[in-house]
Amino acid sequence: MSKKAEKNGIESLARELLISRKNGFFDVTDEKIKKADDFCEDYKKFLDESKTERECVAYTVRLAEKNGFVPFDSTAKYKAGDKVYYNNRGKSLILAVIGKEGCKDGVRIAAAHIDSPRLDLKPYPLYEANDLALFKTHYYGGIKKYQWTALPLAMHGRIVRKDGSYIDVRIGEEEGEPQFCVTDLLPHLGTEQMTKTLAKAIEGENLNVLIGSRPVRTEDGAGEKLFKLNVMKILNEKYGITEEDLVSSEIEFVPAFKARDLGFDRSMIGAYGHDDRVCAYPSLEAALNCKAPTHTVMAVLADKEEVGSDGNTGLNSSFMKYFIEDLADMEGLNVRDVLTKSKCLSADVGAAFDPTYSSVYEANNSCYLNNGVSVMKYTGSRGKSGTSEASAEFMAEVRNLFCKNDVLWQTGELGKVDAGGGGTVAMYIANLNVDVVDVGVPVLSMHSPMEVISKLDVYMTYKGIKAFFEAK
Ligand code: MN
Ligand code: MN
Known about the structure:
Blueprint: H1 3-17, H2 30-49, H3 53-66, E1 70-71, E2 83-88, E3 92-97, E4 108-113, E5 118-129, E6 132-140, E7 153-160, E8 166-171, E9 181-182, H4 198-201, E10 209-212, H5 226-239, E11 249-255, E12 260-262, E13 268-271, H6 274-288, E14 297-302, H7 319-330, H8 335-340, E15 343-347, E16 350-351, E17 373-376, E18 380-381, H9 392-404, E19 409-411, E20 421-422, H10 426-430, E21 435-440, E22 442-443, E23 451-454, H11 455-470
Parallel strand pairs: 1-2, 4-14, 4-15, 15-21, 16-22, 17-19
Antiparallel strand pairs: 2-3, 3-14, 5-6, 5-11, 6-10, 7-8, 7-11, 9-10, 12-13, 13-23, 17-21, 18-20
Helix pairs in contact: 2-11, 6-11
């Protein structure tokens, strides 16, 4: 055998036996890339319209109704291909398409979350100090507090008056509207601050939002709380509310900029709230475009994931189980039999390998931008705690499904062993005795005001979820 032939033999053996780890971009056609770019144009619109869980539910309901979905009625009879949605308190949503086989062999679930880290108002937020008017906030979810200062913020949310009437507010997103910010210390006076750790330099209690600097005008400038009063006067004229109405409000301050293409090649999107709308959007699009599936499919958009999924709009509550129970009852089935045969893609973001911070990743077991939807067997921290680990059998099933449907996919862990970690909704669904695996889009700068994802990965996540919904 010539040296060359031997080399060829080894090369073909390597091709046969070893995983090829070239960048996934080389595995897709120009046509697919075009499709991914087009898909992401609507995703950017969705992001800009859905900066809070309430806005996301409202936008998705409008989209769903346009696509023939109707409110779920637990007393109705449904047939294959019927499309329904269940709106849980305006903050979480289930879209379902009834399958030809119904749910006798379980349902197919894609579960993503639509809450993101942000600054919430405290119950008594409004105060004045040294001739400025400010709002006190209580941050929501895991943030690096220093990232939230000196950043344009918009105010979103709902204020409910004592009589139950409400107004939805959204200030700072449109051209010409005022914005807000949390101030930071000038470097000139930051000598002591600069010696503190990142965790301590900006304290949670100091994330105060600047909202005004002019007092109500009085004859002689004398009077109590004139700066605070001026803000309340403006809010009262605009919304008909008093300070006490803020006690029954849900106001969220979020980054005020819009989703934008990132990079000279426009291959990425920089935006607030990719985690986890970047998986919610592919999940809901897969449901909207799913025609007459074999098994009943559900896209679940949940609230409260960023604070541990507790609460009646989070997936540690029973709302999804009750919905499946209603479906089961309609077919005369026992919900526990349906759950036991059900399968779920827990669609949440992964930590993309970042060469600038390579020391916290293990390069061989990390997800990379443009390598497709990431399939993660487990997440968690401290020796796989706080996670549900998918079985080898279910991993094989999903891997096979993605390969058969031309879905570019990769696998990885969330950083090095013991570097940190995190969880998803996977375990709450797995705890109902459902087969679950984590899938999702790799993100750079996760939980920061501007997270980064690759357009190709968003599209591949959509293709993956769609294939899962349409599987026999
Ligand atoms: Mn997430
Ligand atoms: Mn998160």
